[in-house]
């Protein structure tokens, strides 16, 4: 156990009340680490009051049949007397509800590149595959007996989604070692896989529609799609997401992006993906950020999407020219 892990353990142990926070538009890594953290702490310390904040104002579509949300509002009286644990968040502005500011102290565990510091204790490892991997490593150092099969399922959910079932280069030796330990607990993997990968006919039709929107620059192997505002309603898709994953396996693309309108915040947003060129620095210029090969952004207006496309194409062209010179 290293010094930082011990410091986090000591801090959690010292508080009676814990408040857990996650990022907006939560994925399986941020939800998996949040649910796992709450269950592990309750297994270890049944007397502690541990709450995940913000489910009362979160779209229930994020549950995905795997995470059972408690829609109870967590009062400020709990938060102001608690230790806040922030999971899988690189930018403070992306913390769902923003109520972490009321906590007495903050602990942050994350695997995104460090952009800023906003907690008293921060365990950041951008080489880790996921926040669930870091949380699992902490748990197994602390008390493996408190990792039950339900906790294991939550952690595995974040592990396989953030690695695309161990496809991404972020998968490392520690990732597979943790996965082996979690699978050994024999949680319901079939339920998890059904939740993740089964899709309705309307979802499949919507994805086909997204593919039809793709515009490409064949020379740069770059593509993008602008999803019209009314598309989600037309296909009866409740959850607004970037849909960037639809282009993941198109061999003609090395970098790709999508733009969509998020009517929950009345802003245009999107995602960028890359096979090898780092693109997070481009996203950071457009109120976003993330991993080197996977990042998100938020536009100030729809017209700004042209500036982002121009920035991306210029960047890809420069990077490719630099690589040719090196070789």
Question: Helix count, per DSSP?
Answer: 11
| The CATH architecture of the largest domain | Alpha-Beta Complex
The CATH topology name of the largest domain reads inorganic pyrophosphatase (n-terminal core)
From the N-terminal CA to the C-terminal CA, the straight-line distance is: 43 Å
Helix content: 25-40%
Number of self-contained structural domains: 2
Strand order of the largest sheet: 6-7-8-9-11-10
Low-pLDDT runs of 5+ residues are none
Quickly name the level 1 CATH class of the largest domain: Alpha Beta
Radius of gyration: 20 Å
Q: Into which percentage range does the β-strand content fall?
A: 15-25%
Judged by helices, strands and strand pairing, the structural class is: alpha/beta
Described by strand count, sense and barrel closure, the largest sheet is: 6 strands, mixed
What letter string, H or E per element, gives the SSE order? HEHEHEEEHHHHHEEHEEHEEH
Protein name: DHH family phosphoesterase
Pfam family, one: DHHA1
Domain DHHA1: 244-317
Domain DDH: 17-157
């Amino acid at each position: 156990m290293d010094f930082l892990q011990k410091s986090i353990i000591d801090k959690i142990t010292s508080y009676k009340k814990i408040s857990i926070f996650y990022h907006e538009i939560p994925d399986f890594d941020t939800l998996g680490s949040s649910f796992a953290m709450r269950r592990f702490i309750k297994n270890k310390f049944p007397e502690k009051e541990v709450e995940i904040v913000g489910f009362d104002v979160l779209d229930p579509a994020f549950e995905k049949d795997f995470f059972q949300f408690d829609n109870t509002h967590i009062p400020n009286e709990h938060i102001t007397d608690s230790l806040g644990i922030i999971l899988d968040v690189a930018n403070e502005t992306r913390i769902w509800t923003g109520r972490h500011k009321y906590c007495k102290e903050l602990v942050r565990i994350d695997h995104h590149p460090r952009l800023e510091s906003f907690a008293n204790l921060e365990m950041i490892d951008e080489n880790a595959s996921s926040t669930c991997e870091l949380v699992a490593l902490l748990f197994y150092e602390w008390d493996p007996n408190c990792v039950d099969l339900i906790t294991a399922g939550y952690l595995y959910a974040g592990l396989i989604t953030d690695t695309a079932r161990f496809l991404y280069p972020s998968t490392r030796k520690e990732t597979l070692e943790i996965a082996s330990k979690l699978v050994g607990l024999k949680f319901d993997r079939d339920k998890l896989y059904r939740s993740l990968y089964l899709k309705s006919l309307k979802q499949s039709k919507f994805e086909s529609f997204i593919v039809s929107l793709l515009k490409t620059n064949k020379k740069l192997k770059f593509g993008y799609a602008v999803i019209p505002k009314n598309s989600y309603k037309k296909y009866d898709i409740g959850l607004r997401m970037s849909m960037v994953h639809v282009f993941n396996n198109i061999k003609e693309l090395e970098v790709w992006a999508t733009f969509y309108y998020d009517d929950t915040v009345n802003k245009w947003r999107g995602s960028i993906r890359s096979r090898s060129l780092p693109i997070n620095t481009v996203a950071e210029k457009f109120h976003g950020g993330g991993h080197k090969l996977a990042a998100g952004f938020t536009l100030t207006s729809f017209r700004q999407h042209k500036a982002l496309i121009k920035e991306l194409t210029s960047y890809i062209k420069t990077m490719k020219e630099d690589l040719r010179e090196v070789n």
